[in-house]
Amino acid sequence: MLFRSRPSVLGIAEDTLEFALEAAEDAHPNEYLGVFRGTPAEELDLDADGDVITDVLFIPKTTSSPVQATLQSDLVPNDRHTVGTVHSHPNGVLAPSDQDRQMFGRWPVHVILGAPYGRDCWRAFDREGEPRDLDVLDVEIPTDEEFFDFDQEDIDEELGL
Length: 161
Description:
Blueprint: E1 9-13, H1 14-27, E2 33-40, E3 51-57, E4 63-64, E5 69-70, E6 82-89, H2 98-104, E7 109-114, E8 122-125, E9 135-137, H3 152-159
Parallel strand pairs: 1-3, 1-9, 6-7
Antiparallel strand pairs: 2-3, 2-6, 4-5, 7-8
């Protein structure tokens, strides 16, 4: 099959939501903008079909101000596990603007985070900008521990020193 549809989005990992809220708070008073990636539910030991949002990517060349954030859409990974966006509204309004709605059509989930960035200061929307349910799931997010398993000798070898 040449083209595959995107898997459904089952929910967001609790740790991922907490990360996004903290990143938005750190960016305040500017908007925060990231891209959601999902992990297949079976990789998280869930008996379900679809993806769970487990990652937030910061896209290079993203710009931010107190009233808007923009990203270079051509730098966003274009695969079936890129499932949406997350951005903040420093004014605390948890509703999409007309500009937000223009960006929403590409992916099935969009989350708006609002000041003061507490646990209940967010809302999820579908690709049309309508509110949607997004369960917060207590799952263990897999890490690639080998990626971080290196020391100075490994670095020197990689650099040819």
